[in-house]
Each structure stands twice: as structure tokens, then as C-alpha cells.
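Annex B, item 7. Sequence and C-alpha cells for protein A, then protein B.
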Amino acid sequence: MDNQLLATLLFPHLKHKRSHYEEKYPKREIDEKAMVTRFAPSPTGFIHMGSLYASFVSYVFAHQSQGIFYLRIEDTDQKREVENGIEQIISDLKKEDILFDEGPTIGGKYGPYIQSERKEIYEAFVYDLILKGYAYPAFESKKELEQLRKLQEKEKKRIGYYGKYAKGRNLSLEEIQKHLDNKDSYVIRLKANGNFDDKFEFKDCIKGKITLPSNDMDIVLLKQDGLPTYHFAHVVDDYLMGTTHVVRGDEWLSSVPVHLQLFRLLGIKPPKYAHIAPLTKKVEEHVRKLSKRYDKECSMAFYQEEGIPTNAIKIYLATLLNTSFEDYYLSNKQANISDFHFTWKKMSVGGSLFDLTKLLFLSKTYFSRLTAEALYQEILPFYRENDPSFYKTLTEHPDDTIRILNVERTGKKPRKDFATYQDIKKHTWYMYDAYYFNDTDMPRAPMKEEYDISLVTHYFKEVYDEHDTKDVWYEKLKDFIEQNQYAKTVKEYLQNPGKYKGHVGDFCEMIRVFLFCSLETPDIYELLQILTKEKILGRLDKMQDLC
């Protein structure tokens, strides 16, 4: 067959040949050790934790090698595309602080970065394959392909379009011309030259040496709508965009022989592949794949609604990427992801266990290392978007809020009761009069019959001095309660419980409930210092009325 004639017949209006695009997208001028990676999602659904992890891995390896991380939207399956899918992907990446160096919204020398806008490029490369005798049109209908599948099942053969079952291979130029004249729908297929019985070996960055059957399937390159399949598009794009490392899920492992065959037939050097095993979850005694359907922690919306900080998520993902990072982070208060050297060899071959409890623990550690000022600035965007009322309170009282957030933060063991942005309100709301005096949905500790509001009020009116140091304050408090039949220590109370109404802990509990509506608070002394004596007495008057 005259391949030149066939190529011209199929693409009579081709604007540019392959060489044009190779000149347009020259080899990147970067250091030979620098990695060029990409995140290439399809807008057929929203980003989940698994895809975020893959993008994070690509992001980390590119940036630690002083390379390039770019975003490419693979939207060739337009029947499954969801409304605003591209916008949502970009928004989610921005929220999680996975910032790309090139992409649809910021451009770059190797765009367009949306595959549906690169149709002419794929046509040029298919044209090239046809010229070389490595591609051809196939006109089978869905019905004919279904009949082929049934025949293969009957003959107990592998299902697919290959060998003697690839009827399109044998069409003459005249037959092809007739189909075109009839305006019959067709696809462009690869003329595979592999043998399934031959073994194919390649080295994966994570999994090491892998052996697979050589590809003999005449896969579709261009669909009936003229758009490429994933197999073909990613080969062309990764070549022209200078991708050095492809990070993707290991569900694509079986496709590697196809992809490397395409690279070889096109005469271009393939990138290195790093296939990530899926994130898993332990449910009772079983371990299964993290599920978009069943697991809330798979959805990025969960983290945004709960207010789990982006930096904490990235820190946790770094521990999945390399388990040594956790020890590094916990033992180094100045730990930074960008300062840690990640390697492919340290990544899990079988998949990492996703543990929400550990993520929240690391989030608490992250919060504990922030200054009160930094924490204040970090929580504002969350409350501005999710709780305007509390946001108003925070912004009306910035100095007091910073003091509140600073309670038990400056010592050797800073408080770790904040795991999410929501926890900030949960553990501080009672410090604001607007919430203390007014109805609120926040839980209030129950009043007990043995609580003595008069005694607590008497203490604050006659004994408490807000200018006292902590040590002086505590000694005066213990002297006061002793005079009122409370033991100074729990030990004294337990030795002679009949002698006392309670102990120092019981008295402090009353203070907590009356002034802070909670049985659990950070350091009482620090909280009292923030309230001032005047506000304390005002709150006790309110509680007197309620009691």
C-alpha cells in the first residue's frame, strides 16, 4: 500500500507535519538531573486523596530536583466530563497548595495544556505513523466488534483487536476509499508489531524490574470524533512537553508495553515511569483500597469542611512518600518538606496505609508549632468562608484572640488540642462574651448541685488579684479553699474525705464551669488573665441568675 497516499487521503487538510511541532516545542533547557513531572487528571470527577497524593509526589520530585511541575488536563473522554470539572480540579489544587509551574490558567511554552485543544498535534503524529506503516483506519461498527468478541469467547481466545482478528489491517486503498466515500465512521489504530508470547521488561522507579507480555493489540489511537485515546495522547504530550518522569496509579502498569511500543515506533525516548500503588485503609481486620464511595477521608471536600490545614495534609502525605519523614518532622521543630530528600526507593511498593488518626495527630503537631500570630492569620480564611459570625468575632477582637490562642503555647510542651480549624472555635468560644452570654450551639458543661456559685463569687470579689503572679495566685487560692473546708491537695482529701467538702481540683472545676462552661480548658490562670476581674464578676453575676 502507498502509505503517503493513505495519509493524504485520511488527512487532506493537515496544516502542519510532525516536524513543525518538534520545532515549536524544543527540548527544555534544564539541568540533566532536573525532573519534569506532571499531574494529568481527567475532568470526569473531582480530585480525591489518591489523586492528590499522586500530584504531591510529582510536585515534590520536580521541585527538589529544581525541575518543572505542570498541570495537563486530559479531557479526550468528553462524554464523561462533568460540568466545571476543569475549574474544580484547579480550585482543589490551589486549596491544597499544590501549585504548578505551567498549566491551563498560567500558560507556558509547551501549551495548550488541555488535550482537546491539541487535536491538530495528534493528527500530525498519527500522520507520521501512517507514513511509516504503523497505523491504519478501521471501520468496524460497534455491532461488528461485539460479534468479534463473541467469536473470541467461543474460540477461547484473548479478547481484543489483534492478529487475524484485526480485519482493518488487510483493507486495500480502494476499500478504504469506498468507506470514506460512504462517510463510514472509523478509528485510527496502531499496527502493533509485538508478540504476546514474548516477554517485555522495563524498570519502574518504584517497583523495580517488571516483566509483562509484549503488546500485540492494535489499540485505537484516534477515536471516531477525531480525539485521541489516553494511550496515544499522553505519549505525544509527554514527548513534546519534555516530561522526564510519569507518576501515575499502578492500574496503568499493564498498559506500559503499549506505551513504550508507541514511543519506539515514533522514534522518541520515553520518560521514566513511577507507578504508585493505591492508598489503603484498615477496616477491622481487613485492609482494602481507600474508596471514594465509602470513605469520607477520600474526598477533598471532607478536609475543607473540617478545616484540616493544607500544610498538615502535605506533611502527612510526605510520611506516606517516605516513612522516615515522620521521625524527621517530629524530632525537628524547623522541619520543612523542601529540606528533606525524597527517593523513589523509599516509596512503598505495595501501597501505603492511610490513617486519618495519624493525620490528625500530625495536624495537632503542626498547629502547636505555630506562633499565636501565625495561627490567627491562618484560621481567618476558613472562618470567613465557613462561619461569618465567628469570623466577625475574631476580627473585632484580634489582640484578645491572639492572647487566647497563645495560652499554653510558649512552654516546652505547647498545647495540642487543635487538630482542625473547627477545633479553634470548639476550644475558645467561651472566651468571647458574644458567645458566652448569648445562646449558642456549642456544648456547655452541666451544672452540678454541689457547685457553690456563692463561694466562687466570694473568692473572686475578696481574694483574687489579677496582678498576682501564677505562683502567688495559686497559693492564695489554696489558702482560701482551705478556710472553706476544701483540701489543698487531692492526697489530703483522700486521706480524710469526711473532713472536707472537696479538694482544689473540685474548686477549679467550679471555676471552669461557671466562667468557661467547660470541664476541660487550658491553664486557668492564663484564661483569667485574659478575661480581667471585671469580666469575671460580670460572668458570675450571670451564672448567679441561672443558678
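Protein B:
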Amino acid sequence: MAEPNAPTRPNNVVVVLLDSLNRHMLGAYGGTEFSTPNLDRFAARSTQFTNHVTGSLPCMPARHDILVGALDFLWKPWGSIELWEESITATLRRADVTTMLVSDHPHLFETGGENYHTDFSGWDYLRGHEGDPWKTYRDPSAVGAPTLTADGRPLITNAADGGWFLRDQLGIADTSFGHRHYDDSRTWFRAEEDFPGPRTMASAASWLRHASSAHERWMLFVDEFDPHEPFDTPEPWASIYDDDPIDADAARLIWPPYVVGGTTKGAITEQQARQIRNNYGAKLSMIDHHFGTILDELDAQDLWDATAVIVCTDHGHYLGDRRATGAPGDDSVNDIWGKPAIPQFEPLGHTPLMIHWPTGATGRSSAATVDALTTNVDINATIADAFGVASSHRTHGRSLVPLLSGEADSIRDWAIGGIYGNWVQVTDGRRKYARAPIDANLPLSMWSNRWSTMPSHRGLEDFMPFPKPDRRATLDHMPGSDVPVIRQPFAPGDTLPFWAGGGTRNVGRHHLYDLDVDPDEQENRRGESTAENEMADLLRSALAEVEAPDEQLARLGLG
């Protein structure tokens, strides 16, 4: 119980979002393969959520869930904040809460994500991660290709590594596409402190040290792109898990493939698979180390008693995980890499969430665990609850405060998620049902008033033109809004948005798993009429509750 006169809400909030954070790799969640001492240190004073799942995917749709609080994937793919909605930062601004964004995430500042930062009171963008077009030339003092290790192993980011995804998925022969920017930027990273991740954590710690005391109430949002690819680290991290040393002249693979059946179908060798996985672990351990600077600053500034701290992610990452994907003619158990167009199996969709809530405002002890079902839109509702504010638009989240305080054991009976134009998934916390389109992935429309910013993957529109409204477009309305919105229907033969492309290939491939008896998702129980009908009914009612478009139910055969 709260102490007399103790605050019922925190005065401040820190959110640390680590991208592509696989819960199975964290010590706090039982992982033993890689070292994460600072995330474990944070877990020791936090409530650990054990049944937290993703909603909208991938990267920017997931951030929409957290920052806007509304599921995005049922209406549109990757895109900006729309006219009928507002971010939590806009809501906090009206309540005189100072908000600060510190990020090295390039998608927040490129087309399709460029307005997520604008409602923050301030932001710091640390340049050079992934495909960020930061540098137009290589550091002239760098002789030849930059090196990753003291023994001179070369950094090779093209042909044998990340090119798999682009070549196989998009048919792009030039495998340097997508990684050339990092090739240039990487020559400017000489010391560990030059890499974007360490710079981001240092900037966040500096803000806590110098700026936090200047504001009465504040939120610091640290959107850290690590351990997302490229899995590139300097020594000593680069070799920390090198249990199978490669030849000095061999490429060090820092770009994982996006593929089902990496080794089983010959996309990568077993040695390359181990190397990619170890390179992920190296980056995870490196960013964990620098996350410690934020914890140290919270200690030094004595902020724990007044500050809620949330550590979360957008989604996990497949690192050779074995699942029966049920591809046409192939129900074998394949090793999965990256984020290919498959259902949200546990390594991708079951994600870590840890929250420190000031002890005066919670009845739970440190290092408590909560098994209740939660999802990313609930983080938005929790931030709003922490500051006592309410969004002006329709949201789908439920505050986690009753779980943090011990006043409730559950806040929801279901959670849904998916990628626009592909599977739609529902879980009740035990069973998981991924429903595929039933017939040509239609009917399907896209709702947006920001079409000029919708070509979301800079450069990809040269190879896969993003569909634009045409004479078929009509004005419609979003649930809970009177703002007219352009709705563009698609027809057979239309170019679909990038992430919807797999929907047509996956027609009829439903997935049903009972995680209590099959936590590794090896037995697809699709076709068990009673269980599948129950989960189909649950999905139907969940879609109705979020006021999903009727055509989504028709597309999924649930109308």
C-alpha cells in the first residue's frame, strides 16, 4: 500500500525503447546465451511483464501504437501521425509537461515517420545508424575499408549479407542498395563512443544530468535503434561471443537475412548463422552496457522515487528460430531470420516489458512479475495515466497502473496485432490465432490524409512504387472522428504497399497454437473446429470492439 502523503502518480516518466529486442536473450527473462547485466539490474527494481505482445508491426507502426495509442495496421501500413489523432506528447504539452526525445532511429526522421518528433518539446537526433543518409563520402583519413577488429577483418556490408533480403524480396541486383549509407558513415566511427547507440545513451544521460531539474514535470523518451541491424560493434564487443572464429579474410556478416529456412534452404551456412546470431548478441551486450549510464544517472540524481521508468521494444527478431511456418507444400520446421512475412511467432511477437513504478504509488514490491496479457497500446495509456491526462482521439490502450499497483490481476481478455494487408492475430494469453486472407487478399483499402508522406521506405519506391489515390478514392471517416479521410480501395493487379505484398501469397494459411502445451509453436492446430471457431469468434468480436473496417472482416472471411 502507498505510504501516507506519498504521490499516487509519478512526477516524471522515462521510456527506453530498444528496437528488435528479443526477450529470450535477456537474463531477466531466463536468457543465458548473452550478457545483459544492466537490463537485469533494472529488472531487479521493476515489475516484469511476462505476457506482453506486439500490436501493429513493423517499426513505425509499433511506435504509432506507443506514441498515439491506437492500432494502426488495420487502416494503413507504415506512415505518419494523421490529422484525426495526436501523439501523447501533444497531449502532455497541453498539460505543461516537458517532453524530450533522444534517438538514433532514422525512420523517425524520414518520409513516413517524420512528424512523430515534432510534438516533443525538444529532440536530439544522433546520426549514422542503418540506412541514415548522414554522410555523402567516406572519411578521407580511413585507408581502404573500415575495420571492425584489431586483426583487420574487413567490414563487408554487401554481396554476401544484407543483399539477400533486397535481392530475394525485391529483385534488386545491386546489393549495395540500402546499405551504402552505412558503408560511408561507418568510416567515421573509430571508437566505441562514436557509434550511434552509445552516443544516444550518453545524450539521454546528459539530459537527465543537466536538464531534468529545470522542469517541474517531464518525460524523456529514448528511442534507441540497437540492437537492430546492422549487428556491427567495435572491439571488445565484436569478438565477445566469437566461439567459432572465422578466417581473417572472411566477411563479418552484420546484416541478417530476412528469410524462412536460412540454413535449411541454403541461404546461409551453419557457420554464418552462428556468426550472425553472435553479432546480434554482441550488439545487445554493448547497448546494455551503455544503458547502464541512464541507470547511473537516475541513481546520481535520486530520481527513482519520483520517476516511472519503462523499458520496452517494438518487436523481437528471429535469429534462426525454428517454427513450422506452413508454407505451401512445406510444413517442415524451418529456421527463421529477420522479420519475414510470416505470423508473429513468439520470438517476434512476445516481447519484454519492464516498468519501475515509484514505490509510493504501487503496492507491488521490486522485481515483481505480472502474468496478465498486455500489449503496446497499453504503454500509451499508462503514460497518460501517470500524468493524469486523456487523449482527444480514439485509443485502444488500457492503463497498466492497476497491474502495477496490485489493484487488478488483469486488464484485458484479448490482444490483436498484425501487419497491414497480411495476417491479423488475436491471443487470449494462452491461445494464439493468426488469420490469413481467404481470397486474393481483398477487399482492402488504405485510409490516410498524409498520402504525400506515405512512400515510407526511402528509395524503395524506385522499385516498388507506392500506390497513390486515384479516381476510385472516396472520402470516409475514421471511428471516433469527424475529420474526412481519403480511402483508397485496391483491386486485383494493383501494386500493394510493401508490407502487404505477402498477403496474397498467404491466402488460407491460418495458424492456431495452444501455448500452454506447445510454447515453441510446433503444432499448428488449425482445423480443430471447436478451438478454431472459438478463436475466430474472439477475433471477430475484438475487431468489432476496435471498430475495424468491415472489409477487414470480409478479407479474413469473418464477415
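Comment on protein B: The first helix runs from residue 37 to 43.
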